[in-house]
Amino acid sequence: MPLLEVNNLEVCFGLRSGAVKALRDVSFTLQRGERLGVVGESGAGKSVLGFSIINLLSRPGHISSGSVHFEGKDLASLAPEELRSIRGNRISMIFQDPMMTLNPVLTIGVQMVECLLAHRRISKADAKRIALKKLQQVQIPSPEKRLDQYPHELSGGMRQRIVIAIGLLLDPDIIIADEPTTALDVTIQAEIMDLMLNLCEQNNVALILITHDLGVVSQVTQRMLVMYAGRIIEQGPTKEIINDAQHPYTQGLMNALPQMALPGQKLNQIKGTMPPLQRIPKGCSFNPRCEYVMDICKQTLPSFTQSGNCQVACHMVAEPMQDKMLIKEV
Amino acid sequence: MSESTFKTEQPPTALQRFKASHFWHSFKIDRVAQLSFLIFLAYVVLAIFASLIAPFDPYDASQIDIMNSEIPPSWQAEGEADFLLGTDAQGRDMLSTILYGTRVSLLIGLCAVALQALLGIVIGLTAGYIGGRVDSFLMRIADIQLSFSTLMVAIIVLAVFQATFGTELYQQLAMIMLILVIGIAEWPQYARTIRASVLAEKKKEYVDAARVMGFGRLRIMFRHILPNTLSPILVISTVQIANAIISEASLSFLGLGMPVSQPSLGSLISSGFEYIFSGVWWITVIPGVVLIVLVLVMNLLGDWMRDVLNPKLYKG
Amino acid sequence: MAEQANSLVQIRDLYKRFSISGDLLDQLQFKGGKLTRHREYVHAINGVSLDVMQGEALCVVGESGCGKSTVARTVMGLLSPTAGQIAYRGERIDNLSDKQMLPYRKKMQMIFQNPYASLNPRMTIVETLQEPIKFHNPSMTRGEIQDKIAEVMLSVGVDPSWGERYSHEFSGGQRQRISIARALAVNPEFIVADEPISALDVSIQAQVLNLMMDAQEQRNLTYLFITHDLSVVEHFGTRVAVMYLGSLCELASTKQLFSNPRHPYTQALMSAIPRLEDDRPDYIKLTGEVPTPVNLPSGCVFHGRCPHANERCKQEIPVLTALDDGTQVACHGVEEDRL
Q1: How many A-B residue pairs are in contact by the CB < 8 A criterion?
Q2: Chain C residue with the nearest C-alpha to that of A214
């Protein structure tokens, strides 16, 4: 049984101009200890996905259909009390801005101890010991000192380490990290990503890494999902997708990276922009920007096609397969 | 370019933009705001057309008969149908006097606020944009001004004026004096609010872009920054009009406001106050209610606008 | 440094510090029975000298707080330098009044980082574009202005028929195009771009970068390109200047920098770029935190995190010295041939 199973998840935002679907038909699974990358541009719905897994969507957003199963339990059917014990305890979340997690008026120590005491029945002294251990794990210099410091006394990289320590505090099974290093400098980013990778491996924690940075995903994750306009358009083993992406959008994303073009030459750009969620075109949502667009792309939504170990939602990938099948049938 | 987002559509007109705006939408769903706005509009219409609507002209001595004094409102036993809301101690029709009084009160409120806004905008913009010593200097002046209460300043100035130049001249100039005093006493409210939003806007890159273009200070201040600080100005303006009307009423009540011959709501309330214990309640109570409703409506509108326009509560 | 023949902008020994101790009252402190005035500064730039050559794209790279944006803003005259000089075609411009600066404003333009803040939300696109054109070309007729607006809008790939719209009706990428159009509207020859693509999505970044390269080709522009993203630099830059904590570490041609980075910081920075191919990063681990620019470390600013630092690095500030291959590096280790 997979640790986390998301089935046909659909998330709606009820806006003044009508309901907008931020996520459509999203399904994937996550095994224990697996590292999964979720890639997409802003507005693709990747952060909404993170929030909806732990049912932290705030109004006007809500899960309109589909289900999220954690260890076989449907999270939607749980009482708020049970959900809270899973959230934070079994699944923890790390945000781009450390200050979303840290309370600026409390010391690091107080926040960590409080978090432990809320979920576990242990003494304060024990809680402090655990907090210290976690701070050591995230390789913070002089952790004893940090417990008595306030968040504003620390640098951005240090804060993100603290947030990771808090995320690990209750030995969760899953960490959802939403752009954890986007606000940090590259050298610090490399350190933090390395740290997260090691911690997940050591503690057998599953990681859902939500990011726009293909480079980071390629280095940290084992499997990845590519999202576009609220849908998964390609998923599979990271290596396979990086080396041989099937969907034109994934290809375009990778080709647009500066390292993919010769210095001084034009970058390979994807034309246009992602449509706003209110105006997603008929058929394949990528069709207005796709170089290989066919008539069928403008009419029908592509379903997933197996290609190697990957699943791709693209008519172009699907067609040759059908041809082959037709040949077989003949 | 094949970005097809707007391709076929015409750019929306100003009216369409307004109708699609958050401002209009929240007005449409907020009953209190709608009601307040309607009542305020009614006040304005009544004030503007007071001379057409009012059955008598309270400024015209020939229409006043002292014999008609202190007639209760028409629904009371001794009331007369001619005087719907009764008459005051001088025999003026209360309805007409209140209509004219509303006009005076609103006029003073609006003009005083216009003066406040003018002073406050210029000073706040200058302090916020130029910063440094100029800022410190102007803001300390504002602090000093704020540490005197409006009423105290007004009472001193008006009393001194009355004592030196005599009551007669004062009565002629009462309205202008009130506007000046209330206007000058409360500019720091505007200056502070505007300075705060100028400081926020100044950091934005469009201001840098304008500086890089070589535009002069005045152009940047008034053409680029000022339009972006209009929302807070609108919010405080509604509340400030209410405040100015109350200030004027208080001053009139203290005998430092509008003369009895040209009464504002405040001086009406005050003039009836002497008689309230002899059972003549309507001279005070009716203009009092009119005043309270006006101020309440302005404050409700101001609150609603603050909720709608406050960027901290609403991001968009 | 000798005056180079084709240098467009010269930055000489630039220093910039910001006071962070508030006004006079905040600065006064009571210590040991004495009232003293205590002032603290952020040392944003510490002695930077740079030449921007005609026609090149000089990239300034560094992490947040290294002073790269301050360099850009000082060059544009948005900040005045604490010490040092800035010259444009040999003429000093850092001490000019607003009026004297006007002729240079047409030649030097700037593109900003945040496409959501760099356009005035109360102005339509046409208003945004026509104001600078009118301002700098008072003799232009209305028709000429309209033609110019249409020309720049087309050249950045924005349909001129959208001109009556406000900036909030556009996406981030389109806003950045309009920002570029505004800069191009006055026909500049030198453009300072302060992180112009870091707020954009990957696929849009490529569009904007391409647009900037096209503009450079067509209009013969010179760029001073500020970024934290080394991978963009490799593609875009002619030369690269690497900054750390307000000082220049290394200045080299892009090719040389990427094939043979000399300064230990440059090496660490390059190894940290998340690349697509490698499975597991093999980057140079830096220890320690970036020091704050308030209390600058003695000696080389990088010594606290440098794996090769020795006693000399802690004492003596290294100067930028040219190597045989033309690369300029400020590092004792390189100078001593240790690295």
Answers
A1: 14
A2: C276
